[in-house]
Structures are given as structure tokens and as C-alpha cells.
Amino acid sequence: MPTPDTTPHFASRAGWRWAWLGALIGVAFALAVFAPARWLAAGLAQWSDGHLQLVNARGTVWNGSAGVAFTSGAGGAESISLPGQLGWTLRPRWDGITAVLDMPCCATKPLEFKGRPRTDGLELEWRDGQSRWPAAMLAGFGAPWNTLKLEGVLELSMQALSIRWNGPKLTIAGRATLDATDISSSLSTLKPMGSYRIALEGGPVPSLLVTTREGALQLNGSGRWNGTAMRFDGEASAAPGREDALSNLLNIIGRREGARSLITLG
């Protein structure tokens, strides 16, 4: 008895399989290309434990815009919004991704960085640049900043700065300098209290140096990064004649020892 010819049946089934595979690939590609910006906003909020919020995000993950707010965490009472909008452009590369952040409020030129996945972590490499931020935004990060309620201007400069996470360990290369100008606090009637410089130097043992540029509140100290934590030792004191205006602040930011307040972190 002749065997029935089943070739058309199998060809039909194979054709449907290829059609479904093609459809799935198409959907995956569309999701990747047209993924809404709100997905990026949700991811950043989760990664930052609610401290960084993209507000009213529009566009896609790859090209979008949003307002930026810093909050004291999920459900936190403090929320500081930057003026204007953040615009971003992300571009995939064979070894990672590049990002351009356009923030007219805080940088005259777009900020750029590259992200590269590693076997056990991630590396971020920032292009040299400068930016200017309101010190008030620090209140959005919770304690102790929401207690200090700082005002003033923070000017950040980066040179060959890169940060690499290897599991729980973080390594830093390059240099970053933060100039804090005309800083004041709700804990003191003295406005401004002073201007300061914080210099981060990367390398095998990254270091942090805090110095006073000018002002009645004198801040000085240094720290070392051991890969998982920063050990910082410093002191604060008031210029002659300014002790009463700064006494409350000195009692809070460190351990009082006579006229000085000793600051220890880590």
C-alpha cells in the first residue's frame, strides 16, 4: 500500500514555526527600540532606592526627556526638583553603551559617559566636563542633608574619571573636584558660612581632601577609600568672633572637643 505524502503538512507546520519566530523577533526588536521612557524612569527609581526620580518622562529609553527630582527615598518627605528638563540620548555599542545628558540648568555642555558591563560588575567612564548644581538638592538624599538644609552652589569638574564596580568592590580612577561656594545652613544664622573644596583623587588607594577656601566655618579633613567604604577624619571650627553663630551646627556635625568639632566617617 503506498505511503501518504505528508510533505505539505510538515512544510505547513515548519512555515508557521518560522512565522511565529519572526513575529517574536519583531516584537522584541520593537520593544527594544521603542521602549517608553517611563521604563527608564522606573529602573532609575528602583536602582537609587527612590532618591532619583525622572518626572513626566517622555519619549523612549533611547531618546527622551523628563524633569529631575531628588527625594529622601521611597515615600520620603523631602523632594527637590531641578529647574528645566533633562534630555538624554543613549546609544548601544558592541562593548556597552554611550550616554549624552543635556541639562541646560546645570551644564553649559552636555555631559557624556560610557557604560561597559564587566564579568562581575559595571564600569562608567565620564568625559571631562564641568557642571553647576544647587546645594539644596542634597536635602533629597535624606540624612544628614535634610537636617543641614544647605544652600549655595556646587561646581563639579571631572578629569578622566572612571568608576568600576567589581562585585561589592568599587575602584576609582581619574580626578573630580567639587567647589562648594557661599554655603549656608538652616542650622546657623550666619549666611554664608564659607566656601570649600572637595578633591577626589583616584588610584590604587583613592583619597579625598576637604579644604576651606574662605569663610567663618573652617572645615578640613582627609579620607581614604578601601574599595568598599570611605574612612574620613576631619574637624570643623569657627573663626574668632563667630563661635556663637556656629555653635549649634558644630554640635550636630561632629563630636565636640572644646572649640572644635571632630568629624569621623566610616
Brief summary of the model shown:
This protein is α+β, with helices and mostly antiparallel strands and 266 residues long. The chain has helices at 7-34, 37-47, 145-148, 243-253, and strands at residues 52-59, 63-71, 79-81, 86-93, 96-102, 111-118, 121-126, 129-134, 151-166, 169-184, 194-201, 207-215, 217-225, 230-238, 255-257, 260-265. The chain has a 16-stranded antiparallel sheet that branches.
Explain what this protein looks like in three dimensions.
By secondary structure, the protein is an alpha+beta fold. Helix content is 20%, strand content 49%. The chain is built from four helices and 16 strands. The protein has a 16-stranded antiparallel sheet that branches.
